[in-house]
Design goal:
This protein has 144 residues and is mostly beta strands. The chain has one domain: Immunoglobulin-like. Helix content is 6%, strand content 39%. The chain has two helices and eleven strands, in the order αββββββαβββββ. The strands form three sheets. It has a four-stranded mixed beta sheet, with no helix packed on it. β2 and β3 form a beta hairpin. The longest helix has 4 residues. It starts with 7 loop residues before the first helix and ends with a strand. The N terminus is likely disordered.
Length: 144
């Protein structure tokens, strides 16, 4: 099998990354929510990972605790689907993250690392990935 590598000049062009952020919370009353936002500050480069600093905002009138966060990558294009070309390394929350009413916490914080997004270095030509947009969707489990 022939292996194709992107030229170094192309590696610096990389991706546009958008971020969806809104999560409803089934554990609390129907009107309790958490807003999740953020996107990588670094460019996504073939074979490397970038941190996804997540902003966790509590718009509620009561404090909440975040017990789990999941980030998924989807979208891309027919020649560069996210499912084949990216991996999300999830963060592990050992102790719930406390967020006071109407406050924001940005990961990494409180001993919790930010999740990371990796662009896989596949044994096929990935030039079709240049300029492709992936969408990151975040969900969280919270308690009050």
């Amino acid at each position: 099998m022939k292996r194709y590598l992107l030229p170094l000049a192309v590696l610096s062009i990389v991706f546009i990354i958008s971020h969806s952020f809104y999560s409803t919370v089934p554990e609390l009353e129907a009107n309790k929510t958490i807003l999740i936002g953020g996107s990588p500050k670094e460019r996504l480069v073939l074979g490397q990972s970038v941190h996804i600093p997540l902003r966790l905002t509590n718009p509620n009138d009561i404090a909440i605790y975040v017990t789990a966060i999941q980030v998924t990558s989807h979208g891309g294009s027919a020649v560069c689907p996210a499912q084949k070309n990216t991996d999300v390394i999830q963060t592990t929350i050992k102790e719930p993250i406390y967020i006071a009413a109407h406050h924001t916490v940005t990961l990494p914080a409180e001993g919790v690392a930010a999740p990371t997004l990796q662009f896989r270095d596949l044994p096929t030509n990935q030039n079709g990935c240049i300029g492709v947009a992936f969408t990151l969707t975040s969900t969280a489990i919270i308690t009050g």
